[in-house]
Write a sequence for this structure.
């Protein structure tokens, strides 16, 4: 049904096009030659507008990339995902996070999904009313997908969180993480949510046990109080019950950890923003699902972004992509995307286990603008590597500080402009440089002060950051990751690469008590000795 990208005619055409035109493509010339470029390379999707025109693509590259998508069978593969076929072949599982946000009756498992959703949102709305419930602190204990998605969304939707409710996220097995939060808690006012798809993850179980111990050590707290102050979100309902948690919201193995914020794992989001807003988040994601499922590939935003990602990774050989959300609420988006993209597509064999002859996931990284500008943007503008940047601008702010918002947006536009336009040494020479050392050779100084330009970027624009637009934005990223994975012919839904480290940590653990270093390599043995002594 699917063909690997390097075995298509379009791949050969792309290689030829890259050599003839792609390598030396110049954005500035492209805009001069084609006044319609910005309009032609823009795309509207639900809640998200994308300006793709500052990317190193021309009409021919886009045509060959779209041919590639067709030849690789992106549409049948996408349809297979939505239809619940077991496309996660190595684990024999369907990939149905889209079913979690489908309206009642519109997708597989609707009764189960809406049954849990209704119960979870009813519970969240009761707990969220602090005057009635007495709950003022929610502590989500989870890691990876059981932490990053909810944490990112709660941060993004902060204006919807009641002022009297403090949301905390504890993930690291490093006890500093939990103790930092516990210092601020009052047991009577605290709800712990233990979030783990498997309910076996070392970090989460260790923190959950420590939290329970702390809770029971607080004055007046007994085992009976656990029922009111602990909830679990998991596919392993039995393990949660064995742990002593009676309030449990379940989900299913066809929901991948990094795709799970729409499931019961979203409980902290619902607690923070309420049931109605959680439903709006799901509705935004569903609108993007429809866009991905129904829009022709040439206007399908997740597909277009994925094709440009592949063009950069496999032909331009760019090793990373920087995400710069110009909205403080999206501060955790880059961390969330790191798991989504790198755990999904950081693979070196195809679906049949064959070694790949081309690169897959880039490194995804970033910080909110304008903070990043004062940290690493220097490298983006003048460093030796080209890093495509993804700007996210939000037209309307949720605060009344009009002056700051206009400055924020001006900075966002200025950065993509500067990356593209650059500044020649001649232009730099013609300028005054008040902070330059007196007597420093002016021509040499102009080299330091010049910018190569022609550095690519994409700008995504939201009208406002709301539960609905956030849902659409996240689903856009999910489908983009799906599409690049499908083009590369890999399974984006397993994560065997995290297993080895987990197993070795479990084997090392008893050696900290015993000191036994037999069979260890000399480096690990010496480090073990140093850390124990
Ligand atoms: O890091 C591997 C991983 O399995 C992630 O995919 C997952 O999100 C995370 O661990 C947490 O797993 P769980 O929700 O089962 O605790």
């Amino acid at each position: 049904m699917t063909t690997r990208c390097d075995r298509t005619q379009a791949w050969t055409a792309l290689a030829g096009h890259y050599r003839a035109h792609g390598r030396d493509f110049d954005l500035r010339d492209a805009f001069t030659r084609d006044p319609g470029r910005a309009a032609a390379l823009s795309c509207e999707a639900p809640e998200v507008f994308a300006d793709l025109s500052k990317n190193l693509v021309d009409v021919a590259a886009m045509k060959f990339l779209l041919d590639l998508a067709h030849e690789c069978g992106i549409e049948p593969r996408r349809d297979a995902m939505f239809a619940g076929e077991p496309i996660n072949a190595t684990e024999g599982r369907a990939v149905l996070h889209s079913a979690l946000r489908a309206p009642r009756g519109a997708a597989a498992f609707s009764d189960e999904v809406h049954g849990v959703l209704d119960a979870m949102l009813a519970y969240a709305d009761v707990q969220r009313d602090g005057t009635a419930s007495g709950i003022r602190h929610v502590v989500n204990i989870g890691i990876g997908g059981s932490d990053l998605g909810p944490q990112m969304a709660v941060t993004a939707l902060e204006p919807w969180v009641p002022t009297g409710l403090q949301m905390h996220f504890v993930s690291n097995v490093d006890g500093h993480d939990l103790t930092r939060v516990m210092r601020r808690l009052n047991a009577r006012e605290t709800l712990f949510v233990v979030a783990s798809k498997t309910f076996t993850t070392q970090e989460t179980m260790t923190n959950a046990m420590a939290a329970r111990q702390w809770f029971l050590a607080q004055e007046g707290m007994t085992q009976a109080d656990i029922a009111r102050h602990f909830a679990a979100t998991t596919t392993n309902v039995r393990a949660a019950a064995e742990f002593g948690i009676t309030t449990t919201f379940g989900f299913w193995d066809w929901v991948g950890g990094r795709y799970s914020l729409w499931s019961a794992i979203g409980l902290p989001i619902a607690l923070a923003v309420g049931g109605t807003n959680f439903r709006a988040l799901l509705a935004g994601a569903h609108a993007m699902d429809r866009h991905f499922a129904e829009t022709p590939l040439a206007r399908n935003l997740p597909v277009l972004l994925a094709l440009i990602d592949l063009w950069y990774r496999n032909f331009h050989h760019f090793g990373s992509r920087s995400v710069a959300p110009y909205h403080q609420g999206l501060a955790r988006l880059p961390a969330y995307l790191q798991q989504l993209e790198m755990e999904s597509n950081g693979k070196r064999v195809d679906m049949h286990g064959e070694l790949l002859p081309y690169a897959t996931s880039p490194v995804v990284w970033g910080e909110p603008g304008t903070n990043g500008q004062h940290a690493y943007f220097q490298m983006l503008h003048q460093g030796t590597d080209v890093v495509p940047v993804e700007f996210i601008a939000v037209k309307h702010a949720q605060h009344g500080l009009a002056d700051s918002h206009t400055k924020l947006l001006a900075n966002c536009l200025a950065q993509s402009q500067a990356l593209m336009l650059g500044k020649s040494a001649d232009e730099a020479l013609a300028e005054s440089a008040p902070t330059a050392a007196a007597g420093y050779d002016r021509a040499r100084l102009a080299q330091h002060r010049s910018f190569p330009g022609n550095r690519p970027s994409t700008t995504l624009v939201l009208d406002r950051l709301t539960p609905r637009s956030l849902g659409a934005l996240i689903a856009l990223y999910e489908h983009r990751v799906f599409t690049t994975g499908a083009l590369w012919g890999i399974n984006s839904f397993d994560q065997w690469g995290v297993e080895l480290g987990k197993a070795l940590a479990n084997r090392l653990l008893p050696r900290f008590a015993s000191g036994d270093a037999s069979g260890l390599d000399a480096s690990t043995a010496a480090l073990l000795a140093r850390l124990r002594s």
